[in-house]
Design brief:
The complex is a heterodimer of chains A (174) and B (205). Chain A has 174 residues and is an all-alpha fold. Chain A has one domain. Chain A has helices at residues 3-16, 21-48, 52-76, 78-84, 87-101, 108-135, 139-142, 144-162. Chain A is globular and about 55 Å long. Chain B has 205 residues and is of the alpha+beta class. Chain B has helices at 3-47, 174-193, 195-200; strands at residues 65-66, 74-84, 87-98, 103-111, 116-123, 202-203. In chain B, the strands form 2 sheets. Chain B has a 4-stranded antiparallel β-sheet with strand order 2-3-4-5. The longest helix of chain B is centred in the N-terminal third of the chain and has 45 residues, at 3-47. Chain B is elongated, with a radius of gyration of 24 Å. The termini of chain B are far apart. The chains are: A mainly alpha (174), B alpha+beta (205). The A-B interface holds A 45, 48-49, 53, 56-57, 60-61, 63-64, 67-68, 71-72, 74-76, 78-79, 139, 143 and B 7-8, 11-12, 15-16, 19, 22-23, 26-27, 30, 33-34, 37-38, 40-41, 128-129. Chain A: The chain crosses the membrane at residues 26-43, 55-77, 83-103, 110-128, 140-161. Chain A: InterPro entries: NqrDE/RnfAE.
Amino acid sequence: MNRPWLAAVSLAPLLGATQTLLQASAIALCSLLVIGLHRLCMTPLRKVLDGSAKLFASVLLAALLVTCLELGLRAWALPLSLALAPYPALIAVQCLLFEFALGNNARWRTAAMTLAGFASLCIAMGLTRQLLGEFANLRLASLLPGALMLLGLLLALYNRVRQRRAPSRRQGKL
Amino acid sequence: MNTSSIRTALLLLTLIVLAVGGTVLWQQFTAPRITEAEQQLKAQRWLSVLPEQHYDNQPLQHPLRLGAATLDHSRLLAGYLATLKGQPRAVVLHSQTQGYGGPLDLLIAIDEGGRLIGVKVLQQQETPGLGGKLVEPGNTWLQGFVGSSRQSIADTAWALKRDSGQFDQLAGATVTSRAVIQATHDALRYFDEHRQQLLAGGADE
């Protein structure tokens, strides 16, 4: 379990729950909130638990947080919760991978950077998909295959911009 | 068993109790709110088929008893009565028919004179871009039926132009268009045949 897995799991909400800017912002916010809380709760537990006990606690916490999030969404934002469908529940898997991909020693800076990157990518996807779908009348942008192409273009653009500042061997890495 | 493993077990046990307890409490707290939100959403979706000036009651609180609800091409699943100042003004029928991709659920609103005042798709599994155009925002094909009745259009003309009727079809979606027209016609005929009972609050047979 490491970074490629985290990227693969993050791909699902990035493609599936970013049809409009509202949905994208909602899923980004929910992910930030739940993953942040999960890490916060795990910080004291990480020192006293080890091995399978830590994994168990992590799963339990992720399940608790995601269940509460889903119930809250249903109660106060039912149309949004129906539109986001299974993706809020998937945040639990993201939580677990986040916990184990980033290693045992709590590196808040790395975690925050990764989370911020994920959230801004979500919002950028939502914005471009809604603009292309509604104003440029490009149907493809609101469908899943179009989302995958758009994500590729956005990452390519990011790498192109980054190239000037970062050494080229960092290209394509999270 | 050494002290550290006992401590771990105790800690996990506390965590389980906290997690389960927290979830149950939160569920209890949100349950009434969720029910309310679901009802609101249902009312919003279902009543959007009725023009607002046609009712002042809460039609979803007045379900109709539908007798013999299996029609020629469709099936009526539910019906609701809309009243204005105590007078019955319209009925909303929930009709299910077979579309191209699966069952097609329609809401059909008919006023007290047997005139169609609204058709809306509740659920569909039609091909996106073809039959799915039915539910795309900005599609006005369903609006074309509003105002028609069995008095203004003969029974034989309730069909697509290619079936020698008088209605246009959605481009590339003959099966879907045919299903919608037949279900609408079915519902109008059902209303005409059971008008008295429906407006009185039920159609017992």
